[in-house]
Structures are given as structure tokens and as C-alpha cells.
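FAQ

Q: What does a record look like?
A: Structure on top, sequence underneath. For example:
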């Protein structure tokens, strides 16, 4: 009897088709070379979300690799994936395209830079077959490694670590300021700038590109200095969390439209974050600008609404106020001239600049002669007598005996107590109400005033204005303020020349012509 043939195993055709399809997709992915860091990131990590912001930044990154001598500054809301894209996926994509490329990733600390480097290394280890290169085993560390058999590699370090012995075709600088406190320090900002100019920039090879990613905590941070001094060399791309008038938006969205977030932030979530972090952090971190374009402690509208184009009349009192400097380097001298017209104080000149003590004393005397000041008031929390002596010597040398020198705050008073913000309270209120105004335009003073935020060093010109305002307001009680009876008359300038009324909101009687009975000599 012939035995029955053995039963053939059944074929799972559906499963086989799935396997074949998966292999086909994988082979297609291997054959296709991603055209950008974002495309590579999404290919190897499907959870990486390519938003319009990420797509734009990725395109800029491609340009920095493909074209020579590219210099880009990127400011963008946090938690958008920008650091992951630019400090992790960009190096991987650049080395995939050219394993000989030398890359530097610099941050505010060694730890942060090395974390970026470790992420890059992990991606390379897991996907080396697809990427087409692997790490060298003999020269591989957390912060410095090479591509096996190639010239390329990566150095990751803190900006103050000094990347000696390593050049770069691509320099990526990602947040060199840890927080607002570092950015507010003039000394630290200077160290960062010097490190960039004298060390990092010299490491970039001919034709190499530079990519700077920053939170704009301060107007004079690294990005601000580079944009001010080299505007024709740098491209600046800003994508704020919420489109707003006065805030650059590379996506050109309509007013009020929020960013499509990679982390799912909704308009309500952004509004909540703004309340939580406060205005300064909101504009620096989420809007990409160091200050609210409408002003911070001092609002632009205050300066505009109360600005004077001509002086109301001859001033009652004029003083030159000084916030002194010593070395002429770093800290500038605040030097302003201010006049009082009745009860309104007006800034008439700003000559603030870095100066030595001898230089500011001479400048103060020259300004006093120019504006007809009767007093030079010097902020004197330290070196009180020294500052007075230096100013008096400058007056004597110029042959001026009609100007007196005073040290502020006066001894035995409560004036000048508290920190800079507390001392400035009356001046800020004056700007808001119009009791303090600007005569004409003073670009340097106005820029400093609008950029000053709580927690920051007070601009020197504002510190001087605090002195001048206090001296002039305090002088009101030291002079007679006659108000003749009878109806007020309006002059051609629209100001009241007698009495008190709407033409003079502070009730001053300057310019009054006293009636005869008030000027008649009393009998002896």
C-alpha cells in the first residue's frame, strides 16, 4: 500500500505580504537620502514632529551646510524642538552627507553640550548602517569624537572651556547664557563676546558656517552685539510664540496667531505660560526679543504722549545730573541736563558715555555752561567727597563760579533710599503722568529707558535722571510760586500766563506779570 504524501505546511500569505511590504519600505528608506535634518529626524524617529517652524529652521540648516560662509541667528520659543533639530539632528545629517566634516557644538556649560553630543552618538550607534558611517573606537569620548576612518567628527563643550586643537566647518552655538542673571551681568556678557571673537570665531575654517541659537535675555547679548556690529553678515530668523506688532516673525503670521507647537501648546497654554513666567521672561523666551517693544518699566507711549517740541518758557531751574564712572570702560557715566518749568521736569540733553572721572567732570561743566545750569548734582553713594572735589576742580579750571556742586542724596534725608527700582519710583510715575517729559528726541536715552526691566542693571543715563528729577522736584518747596489774582491769559503758545487752568496742567504761574499792588515798595 502506497503511503499518503506528507501534509504541506500552510502558508500565511497575509503575514508574508506584510513582511515583504516591510522589507520594501525599509529598502526604500535606505535608498532615499533625507534632504534635510528634519526629514532625517522624522525618518528615524517618527514621533519627531515637523511643524512649520521646524521646517523653516531645517531649511536654514541645510543652507548652512551646502553654502559657504553662512551666518545665522535663530530665536524661537522653547519646547519647539529647535535645539533637538539644530544641536543633534543637524550634526548627524551633516556627517551623513560628508563624514569628513568637522563640527563644534558650544553651549553655556560642558554638561549641556555633552548631553547634545551623547544624543548624537546614540543615534549614530543605533543607525550606523543606514547613516553609512560609525564612531571611531580609538578617539571617542562624550565631548570629543571622530568618525571611523574619516577626518570628520564633533567637539561639544561649554563656551568658557577653550576648544583648543579643534577647528570646524560648522560651528553651532546653542544658548551661551544659562539664564537672565548671567545675561544681565555686563562682565559676563563681555567674557562671552571675547570668547567668541578671540577663540571660537578663529576656529572656523575658511568657508565654514556659524549657527547661533539664543534666548534673547538682553539687548547687548552676543546676538545683539553681532547684529549691531555686523548687520550685513548675519541673517536673523525669529519665530515668536504669538504674532505681535513690533516683534519680527519669520512666518509672517497675522496678528495674534499662535505658533503651531511640536509639543501641542494651545493658545490657552501660551497665555497661561505668559502669566506664570512674567513679561520679561515671556518676551525673552517665547517672543524672541529682549524687551517688550512697547517698553517695560517705562512705556513708549509715556515718552511719546508727553514729548515737547519746544520749551514752554524760560526754565525756573536747570541742573546737570551725573551718575559717575571711574575707569571709562564697561560702566558708562550717566550725564544729563534737566530743567524745571513750574512743576514739570524736562530732560533737555543727554551726554551719557563711557568716561573717566576727569573726563565726565569736564563734560559736566561744559554741559552746565551750555544749558545755563546752576548746579551739578552727582550721585555719591561712594567716594562722595572725591566726586565733589573732581567736579569743583573742573569748574575752577574752566573759570566758572556760578555753578555749585552737590552730592546726592543729601545727608540726613530719606531721599535715595532702597534699590535702583525703588529710587526710580518717582521718576517712573513722572513719565507716566507727564510730570517728567523729554524735550525733543534723545535716541540713546529712550532706547535705554524702554529696555530697562526689573532685575536688570539700571542704565546709567536713567540713574542720572533719577538724581536730576529728585533735585528739581525737591526745589519746588524752596522757591516762591506766585499766582496773581484775576483771570488767566493764554499766550500764543497756548500756555497760561497768569492764574491756574488747563493750559498749565501743573498749576505753574511762570511768565506771570505781577500787578502793581504786589510790586509797590513797602513804607520804611
Amino acid at each position: 500500500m502506497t503511503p499518503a504524501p506528507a501534509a504541506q505546511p500552510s502558508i500565511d500569505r497575509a503575514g508574508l505580504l506584510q513582511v515583504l511590504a516591510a522589507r520594501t519600505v525599509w529598502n526604500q528608506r535606505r535608498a532615499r537620502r533625507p534632504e534635510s535634518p528634519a526629514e532625517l529626524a522624522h525618518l528615524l524617529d517618527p514621533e519627531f514632529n515637523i511643524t512649520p517652524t521646524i521646517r523653516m529652521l531645517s531649511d536654514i540648516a541645510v543652507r548652512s551646510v551646502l553654502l559657504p560662509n553662512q551666518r545665522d541667528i535663530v530665536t524661537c520659543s522653547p519646547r519647539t524642538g529647535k535645539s533637538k533639530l539644530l544641536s543633534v539632528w543637524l550634526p548627524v545629517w551633516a556627517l551623513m552627507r560628508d563624514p569628513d566634516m568637522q563640527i563644534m557644538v558650544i553651549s553655556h556649560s560642558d554638561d549641556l553640550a555633552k548631553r547634545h553630543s551623547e544624543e548624537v552618538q546614540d543615534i549614530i550607534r543605533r543607525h550606523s548602517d543606514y547613516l553609512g558611517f560609525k564612531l571611531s573606537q580609538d578617539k571617542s569620548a562624550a565631548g570629543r569624537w571622530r568618525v571611523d576612518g574619516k577626518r570628520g567628527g564633533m567637539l561639544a563643550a561649554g563656551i568658557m572651556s577653550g576648544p583648543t586643537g579643534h577647528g570646524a566647518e560648522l560651528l553651532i552655538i546653542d544658548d551661551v547664557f544659562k539664564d537672565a542673571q548671567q545675561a544681565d551681568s555686563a562682565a559676563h556678557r563681555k567674557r562671552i563676546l571675547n570668547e567668541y571673537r578671540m577663540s571660537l570665531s578663529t576656529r572656523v575654517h575658511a568657508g565654514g558656517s556659524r549657527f547661533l541659537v539664543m534666548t534673547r535675555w538682553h539687548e547687548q547679548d552676543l546676538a545683539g552685539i553681532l547684529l549691531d556690529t555686523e548687520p550685513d553678515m548675519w541673517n536673523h530668523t525669529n519665530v515668536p510664540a504669538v504674532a505681535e506688532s513690533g516683534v519680527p516673525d519669520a512666518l509672517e503670521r497675522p496678528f495674534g496667531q499662535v505658533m503651531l507647537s511640536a509639543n501641542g501648546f494651545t493658545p490657552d497654554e501660551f497665555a497661561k505660560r505668559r502669566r506664570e513666567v512674567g513679561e520679561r521672561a515671556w518676551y525673552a523666551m517665547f517672543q524672541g526679543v529682549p524687551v517688550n517693544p512697547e517698553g517695560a518699566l517705562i512705556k513708549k507711549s509715556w515718552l511719546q504722549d508727553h514729548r515737547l517740541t519746544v520749551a514752554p518758557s524760560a526754565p525756573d531751574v536747570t541742573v546737570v545730573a551725573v551718575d559717575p564712572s571711574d575707569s571709562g570702560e564697561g560702566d558708562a557715566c550717566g550725564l544729563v541736563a534737566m530743567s524745571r518749568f513750574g512743576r514739570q521736569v524736562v530732560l533737555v540733553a543727554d551726554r551719557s558715555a563711557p568716561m573717566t572721572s576727569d573726563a565726565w567732570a569736564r563734560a559736566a561743566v561744559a554741559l552746565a555752561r551750555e544749558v545755563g545750569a546752576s548746579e551739578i548734582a552727582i550721585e555719591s553713594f561712594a567716594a562722595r567727597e572725591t566726586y565733589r572735589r573732581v567736579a569743583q576742580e573742573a569748574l575752577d579750571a574752566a573759570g566758572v563760579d556760578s555753578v555749585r556742586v552737590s552730592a546726592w542724596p543729601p545727608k540726613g534725608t530719606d531721599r535715595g533710599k532702597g534699590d535702583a527700582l525703588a529710587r526710580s519710583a518717582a521718576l517712573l510715575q513722572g513719565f507716566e503722568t507727564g510730570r517728567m517729559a523729554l524735550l525733543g528726541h534723545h535716541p540713546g536715552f529712550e532706547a535705554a529707558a524702554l529696555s530697562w526691566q526689573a532685575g536688570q542693571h539700571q542704565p546709567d543715563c536713567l540713574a542720572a535722571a533719577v538724581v536730576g528729577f529728585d533735585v528739581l522736584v525737591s526745589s519746588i518747596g524752596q522757591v516762591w510760586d506766585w499766582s496773581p489774582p484775576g483771570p488767566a491769559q493764554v499766550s500764543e503758545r497756548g500756555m497760561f500766563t497768569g492764574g491756574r487752568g488747563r493750559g498749565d496742567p501743573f498749576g505753574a504761574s511762570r511768565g506771570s506779570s505781577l500787578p502793581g499792588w504786589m510790586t509797590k515798595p513797602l513804607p520804611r
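Q: Is there anything notable about this one?
A: The chain has a mean pLDDT of 85.
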